[in-house]
Description:
The chain is of the alpha/beta class. α5 runs parallel beside α6 (126-138), α9 (173-185) crosses α11 (214-226) and α11 (214-226) crosses α12. It is elongated, with a radius of gyration of 34 Å. The protein has helices at residues 21-24, 37-40, 45-51, 68-78, 93-110, 126-138, 151-154, 157-160, 173-185, 202-208, 214-226, 240-246, 259-273, 277-289, 294-309, 315-330, 336-348, 354-369, 384-388, 429-464, and strands at 58-61, 82-87, 114-119, 141-147, 164-167, 197-198, 237-238. It is built from 20 helices and 7 strands.
Amino acid sequence: MGMDLFEQDPAGRAEPAYRPLADRMRPANLAEYVGQSHLLGDGCLLRQAVEEDRLFSMIFWGPPGSGKTTLALLIARETKAHFIRFSAVLSGVKEIRAVVEEAKDQLKYHGRRTILFVDEIHRFNKSQQDAFLPHVESGLITLIGATTENPSFEIIAPLLSRCRVMVLNAFSTGELRLILQRALTDKERGLGKQALEIEDGVLDLILSRCDGDARAALNNLEAAAMSVPADSPEGRVLTAGTVAKYLERKAFLYDKTGEEHYNLISAFHKSLRGSDPDASLYWLGRMLAAGEDPLFIARRMVRMAAEDVGNADPNGLVIAVSAMQAFQLVGPPEGELLLAQAAVYLATAPKSNALYRAYGNVRQTIDRTGSLPVPLHIRNAPTKLMQDLGYGRDYRYAHDYEGAYVFQHYLPEGIRGTRFYAPSDRGYEKIIQERLKKWRKDAVKGDSESGQAAQRRKDEGKGST
Length: 465
């Protein structure tokens, strides 16, 4: 097509020495591919589709360095379809139309269907994704998209419904070790000709810095190998001390507006709710290490203090708010310890969601009953007219009674007697529960007496007529 955007026949590329090790070590066939056994194991759908050359449109979803592009290139090599590699970063609707025309020509003149591989497909906007839709639906194009973002959020529903999502996992330590060992021994594509000796613990050190990313692991291995001079008197030995100087730690998988952001804050909140201080500290540390806004975490703890601890330990809210305010004074990194203290306090506090449920019940009742009028006796009465209309009449001032409590109705007549708040028997709420039991017992008695008095007034009214 004469466009740099497309890379056709990727299997036939030259392999110059300057290509990175991670690119040179891409497997040449499915037999060399390491990992993703849930997709490529014997009898698995994707493996059968490739071996039988019966591909369908799909989205590869996985973290960086999990083999998405490699797998797409292997499919190109092992099928008879025309293959086009397309960059979502560098192209738009105009280039998509050019791909469609080429696909039509391939089908018309060569009888071959077209596989279109779109890297970083989540970068396409809605109109660009819409441009693919009719051609994927008709079968003119078999789409293979690769993304690190959750397709549920980033791919339009009509296109997603026509593709099968294939989830790729980060590589395990064992799988990455095998990939590195192959790179060390491969004399054609890898580092085998350099005859490197590897000190014990070196591979473990490299693996500890890559977070399941094969590309990062191979890049670190290559950087470490380059650090050993060819004429070293001790021979070409990779030591842990030498390697540590050249290693680059892979950034933690995290997106402050994407799925991983919500996954980690969810794990943190649920660990707090589940009373696990160790898990709470771990997820707190993970978010802070990934660059999350500490005040976002602090605000979530304030919310959690009300939602999940509530009045079982009212001090939880005080601790959470204090930690947030103190962090603003101290700042990072010292202030992170303040958040850790609050997290451990909330995780180990007695739990109650009675307040959360009570307020939810209130919202439902308001939605159902609308604007019920305020009872006359608890209305504000600043003018004589209001007083003449009965505003504030017969109101009982609680402090005039023993224990600063006296029975009277406060809810509107339509929902009188409704109980929204049901405290648990945990922590301070047990005291609240006992207090409410007594008050509500008095309320039942008072309700009965007020009902009898009302009946007497009614009867007296009948007698006077």
